[in-house]
Amino acid sequence: MASDTEPGRRRRCCAQDTPDAPKVPDSRGDSDGSRRGSLCDRHCAAINNVQGDLGDLGCHLHRPRVLPATSTPSCCQQHSEEVCESCVVKTTLTAENAVEANKLSNNYKFGFKKWKSHVTARPWEDRSEIVKELYSDLNIVRGSAGSTLTCGNVLYLLLFGWWLSLLYVLVAAVMFITIMGAPYGRLCWDLAGYFLWPFGKVIQKVEVPKSHQACEAGVGESSALLGGPTPLRWRPRCWVGTGYWQRASTAVWLCLGYPLLALAHGLVCVTAWLLIVLIPVAKLSARATSRVLPLPPERVLIRHLRMTEVPLEGEVILCCYRAANPYYYKYAVDGINVFAVNLLPLVLVTLVLGYVDSPNHLTGSAVKFTLALLSIMPLSYYIGMAIASISAQSNFAVGAVVNATFGSITELTFYITALIKGSREGNRCYAEVVKSALTGTLVGCVLFVPGLCMVIGGIRHQEQRFNSRSAGVSSALLFLSVGGVFAPTLFSKVYGKLVCGECHNVTQNPLGHYLCHNCHFDLMDNNGTLYYSHVQPLVYTVSILLPAAYLIGLFFTLKTHTHIYDIHISDCHMPGHHHSAVVHWSRWRALVILLLSTLCMSACADLATEHISPILTNSTISQYFIGVTVLAMVPELPEIVNGIQFALQNNLSLSIEIGNCIAVQVCMLQIPILVLFTIFYPTNFTLLFSDLHVYASMFSVVLMNYIFMDGKCDYFQGTVLVMVYFILLAVYFFAPSPSGC
């Protein structure tokens, strides 16, 4: 961003003062050298690296305007002969409160977990009309709601409406037979028609204070509250509103009618909630159970809604227009996404079934392994949200410690439990599966995660740009980490002794060619001198250098070169808004959830490793493929979802950083921790990988760096990354199982 105006000199480009550009204070009082550097640092801005629509995050992106290189703004004429060393990316994000500002700042810090969802409650007026409708109660009457004949309403009729209506008819018959429950029989008869097709109808609570007073005076009323003739059943009587719980009809209703209907509505509520798009039906059933059925029958009024009757008088209890809403995937309960809420009972089922049914009388090992693996997904979500909540409400030191301690807890828990089980059984297959999972996580986060985000983000945005300098830091660390992790393997290839299990002479000539099987490099020759004297010290050296390089990367990006991620986060409220931060999870609550989730994660990992043995021995699929796909990518699904959400908002920088940070942590933190663990608890895990793992990892890192060189991408480049990932999966699928499995 400089133009050569004089030989040997370059001039720094400056952004003119714009409404979005931050104000620069005058620095004339400083020394000449510092004044020049300060002003140039503050005026130089480039916006072609970081672009993002963070509207859904409740933030605004303020970008300085970049002038052509040939122009000489008046604000910088006096510094036209300065040397431009670099142009700094400056982006200002305005958050809703200080906690959200801290969370957004943590998203741009290397080594911190990137979290898309809010950790505080968003102000109601800042939400879109679509989101407001998701959280509204089913008691709002709208003047024009359109046709009620929709696919979702028909689906309700087929799944719930017909049998729920039939149940009400049967309960009405029972109430009529009891004689005393006749008023409730008439109520159930009317509700049978309502729940068959509740759309476009309202249930109101009739208020009868004046009628009650008139009845006590001996004067009856003959008009309904809403106008028109009053049905016989709705005419007020002297006992309306008095002694409801002392009536005989109420006792009959509470014994014979209400429990059965409440159970049916509970079943409908749970089923509709699990289907997510039918959450309005769950709200309908829950509200009917709690607000309609406990009322006296004379206080319930069911009406067909007409446009001429809007607005209605009286309290509206139920008014539903749509049974399905596809936007309910955004729904959250206390800040927790509805998918994570629905998967939480799966964790309880997994733990109970896994530890109670140890002899596998109820289910087999395959089912328990699948349940344990699926349970890891919601637990990973809770761990991620707890880490983000604690970091957003704490200082930098606490956030760094929490992210470093629990950032990789999901993967490490599974790996360590698998290695312990393999050591106890003397089975080397577990160590090979762990190596496959490590390689699969590395390859998946380098190819699949950014590639998928590019494809999905490219559908909405024709071209996406990202911060190539920050991606370059991660790429350099990836090159270093991959070289360090596979250095012992390459060393063994050079100095190891090739040993084969079986060889056949193809030409029947002693000097001819031999065909050998099950060949590998033996490092244990001469009582393991090569391994214990050369390879093992190299492994320990690499395991020390890699975390040290990770710490240097943190110091580089977070301390000395913070301008690479020059994101200014402001916690100022948007104009006209004055809200205090209402966090979903306090620090203590987040800490408790974090510890409980980690404990449950350990139990699920133990169950997964306990029941994976039959799958590894009896499956026709290569153990390489199982480790690279299922065991590697299932725990990363919450991170993949976060990356996709960032990409849809044109913030591809964070999508790429998610994959890169996981890959770097695999090589620089997880693998050294596993090596350190083997020192205190001997296992079969050694830092020697198969050739397939080495070639796949190195090729993936090289391809990723080639794609990320220019700082921009589109869906085609993302498709290339995804296709290469699937090609590698095909290679692993058809590869023979590792030796010892």
In short:
This protein has helices at 32-43, 98-107, 129-135, 151-177, 182-196, 209-216, 248-275, 279-292, 338-356, 365-392, 396-406, 409-425, 429-460, 468-485, 487-495, 525-560, 587-610, 613-618, 623-633, 637-648, 652-680, 691-707, 715-734; strands spanning 2-6, 9-12, 60-62, 91-94, 201-205, 300-304, 315-320, 332-333, 336-337, 464-465, 497-499, 502-505, 514-517, 520-522, 567-570, 712-713. Helix 12 runs parallel beside helix 17 (587-610), helix 13 packs parallel to helix 20 (637-648) and helix 13 (429-460) packs antiparallel against helix 23 (715-734).
Defining key terms:
741 residues, mainly alpha, A middle domain of Talin 1, three-stranded mixed beta sheet, three-stranded antiparallel beta sheet, 16 strands, disordered N terminus
Structure description:
- The chain is mainly alpha-helical and 741 residues long.
- It folds into 2 domains: 120-206 and 246-333, no CATH class; 335-505 and 515-567 and 580-734, A middle domain of Talin 1 (Up-down Bundle), CATH 1.20.1420.
- The protein is built from 23 helices and 16 strands.
- The strands form 7 sheets. Strands 3-4-15 form a 3-stranded mixed sheet, covered by helices on one side. Strands 6-5-7 form a 3-stranded antiparallel sheet, covered by helices on one side. A two-stranded antiparallel sheet has the order 1-2.
- Strand 8 and strand 9 form a beta hairpin.
- Helix 12 (409-425) runs parallel beside helix 17.
- It comes from Peucedramus taeniatus.
- One of its GO terms (molecular function) is calcium:proton antiporter activity.
